[in-house]
Fold these 3 entries.
Entry 1:
Amino acid sequence: MAANFMFPPVGFGPGSQPGPEEGEDLAYLAMPSGMRVFEPHFPMVDDPLKASAACRMLTTLAQDAGDWTQAGGVIRRDIASLDAGARSILADAMGEGEVAIAIRGARKIDIQESVFAGIWRVAENGREHIEIGAIPAAVLDSPPIAVPEPPMPDLGVVNAPAILTELLDHAAQHRAGGSPHAINLTLLPHTPEDLDYLDRVLGRGPVTILSRGYGNCRIEQTARPNIWRVRYYNSQDALILDSIEVTSVPEVALAAPEDIADSAERLAEVAEALV
């Protein structure tokens, strides 16, 4: 009598799955698509005088980006001295990049990354300025919001207490520049009550970041210091990864030093084209 391992397993191989002729097609999860890439844009200029002021600012920004270092922190440039026409040309040249940030709390700040990575337009109280850096200073300066400790439900909570213990322990030990620590909720067994309890204990902070580089990534600051909720969605807006990160700011939102150096060269090219 032949041993079982001599025969192929049931349910595998050609003919084991329903085909199109039987009204069944294999369904695959849609993967992210439509990656945004840099496309240089040279604005149309009617008034050379207005263009010269915008060109000088672009040249200054290019020099700032070239001089920027991680140790030096954020470089800020005020554009209040520019008239409306020059600001319009400058905004047209900078465009809108991958990352948008909203800060709501004691301060209301709207931030949009330009098409030049690491060059940010920051609007607060009707005034706008430009910052060069990995992330605008207001994101790092936004303090968490205190939330009361909610009572634990009598039923349904299984893994949330252990997850919270791990998160809070790493958050207490985290220091700026330290290695991040992440918990992947997508791969971790949990109940709906676990997620609800985690949300209530962690709370919501003032900062929300949306990155649209490859699919969508929504990053939310929690009310606990150094703890962020990071969710990735595919091009169909289906959640494909849900995680919690212990870090100063999740890396996906940060502009890399190499990208900022590249932005310096591209800004200089646009400024030269406007001359």
Entry 2:
Amino acid sequence: MAEFPPLIQAMLDPSWYPHHPNEVELVQTHISYIFLAGGLVYKVKKPVDFGFLDFTTLEQRGFFCREEVRLNQRFSPDVYLAVDPISMVGNAYRLRDETAVVEYAVKMRRINEAHMLYRLLQAGEVTTATMQRVGKYLARVYAAIASDEKARAFGAMEVIATNVRENFAQTREYIGGPLSAKTFAAIEGWSLSFMEKEEALFAQRVAQGYIKDCHGDLHLQHICVEGDHIYVFDCIEFNERFRFGDVASDAAFLAMDLDSSGHPDFATVFAEAYAEAAGDDTVAGVLRFYKVYRAYVRAKVTSFMLDDPALDEAAKIEIVRRAKVYYDLALAYCQGKS
């Protein structure tokens, strides 16, 4: 068994929790320890600094735990419950104790993994009505989020262009690997040309109030459809630049994910249901641009994995294949083929 820090060891014991679950399962990401404890989930942030996020101090971890709950409650108020302090009292860690706080945990209600949207798609249980519900639900959530002065700044052409140009600067080194020079040039050229030609449309999106504090990571694995309920979770709390922007960028992320999963019809149904429910008459004009952007970001992030010196050849081949899928999808969008 891996050697975990003492707190993590303590949280693996079911008797440590006030609700006494039968068992505790640990899931790790690169930034969190996630404890599946019966009907509840507790998430503890790792003390890491990756540049785009910094959780190295207790104060920062506490702040971003509170931000995670605040921001995600907009999308799933029944899932994100509280931030619980953890104190060291004597030689023992105690949950919901503020005596001598040494850590914070996000407390969530556990949702059914089998009802995650990607699982439902795999099982063939998603219908047109399902995706219409998701579109309408997100329209209601975004309608309740203000487009204030801070948010509107992220809709400025120079901010959007900076984000787009950054993608190309960060992926140039992968030309000759998962990315061909021809594909790179085509996507870059289309993206820069679109921004130049449609500057008035981007300004109109700002004026119409569609630049908001959004989700930032809206894809199939972050949506659950369970009975009459829709839950959207894992909003990006740690970096505002990844979260603020046009609601169309969020919608495009989900539509792109549906396309890449082989469900373009559902992508269209979702986008149309969102636009109609939101009364958003200009989203169609920017949706393809943001689908290109989102596919390219996914390709970029996948490409970054190639920089891991510990990868064996088989893993590299698979990562190249996965990255190429997203580069090719971005190109297809530019060519109007998808």
Entry 3:
Amino acid sequence: MTAPRVVLVHDWLTGMRGGEKALEMLCEIYPHADLLTLIHVPRSVSPTIERLRPRTSLLQRLPGIRHFYRYCLPLFPVLIEQFDLDKYDLVISTSHCAAKAVVKTGRARHLCYCFTPMRYAWDQFDAYFDKDRVGTLGHRVLKPVLGALARWDAATAGRVDRYVAISQHVASRIRRYYNRDALVIYPPVDTGFYCPDDTVPEPFLLIVSALVPYKRIDVAIDASHLSGLPLRIVGTGPERDRLMRLARDRHADVEFLGSASNEEIRSLYRRAAAVLLPGEEDFGIVPVEAQACGRPVIALARGGALETIVDGVTGVLVNEATPEALAAGIARARTLRFDSMAIRTHAVRFDRAVFARAIQTTVESLAHG
């Protein structure tokens, strides 16, 4: 029997975040697949992904596109539909934006591993494009543009044969916006790499995150200041300058570490008193990595955190996205005696091998369904 011709489709490749770690596993499972993406910043992702030599859209030809590709959002629908998928039998899209809308042939099957329906088009427009960030004119111009994108996102939902969501939270969003059911397969976490050692935790809090509005890093800065504990932040993004000004204005003990290697991040997880997750995440791979290292997580009790953190056992959940509530959660965590091995045992259920088995079983059932 001839092996199916497989293509992987990813929104864009500009760094190794949670979505790219899921894509990396798919590249291992399907090492002979083709890989399509809107833009690719060379050497920005792992060798496993780079080995597939990603093919890109016309956006790639624009000089300096890596610095402004997000501003090309209105072009994504046209560009993603230009990919020629005629020769493929199986399409696997990993999508939080446009990848799920590729156009396949009638004989092909399309599985979408959905990180989320396009959040800034559906229900988080103000988190990304409020007047303070883009100005009054920008807000007015972008509102109908994102409305049109939401309509396109819904209209193209039927191009997918089967949706797989990264969490029950995302599955509910898929039902709400696409009117489709979705199986849940949690993203892969390398619990072999992220593991405890004999490091003694130090009295500081840690955030590992892209510095973008919906992550609510500002809440964590104020909460850490209220708690009297230093905060270290790993990550880069468009909010960096604003957050640094906020920390200076508060006279908060905050250190911005910028980008860090996986080894450096693992060391920080092991050394931190706790890891903070102040915003609502669709899944949140950082909390699971931290728990795999035996460290507790203090998180907002919404979204994926409700599925990855056990309150009082592997961390603390807080009910409001305010500095005061998060500071109270930090104070509560300091009174608890966490068992690092119990925390790690919980995290192992999200291991890479669990993800690989579940995805392969789902693809096989799709092929024979």
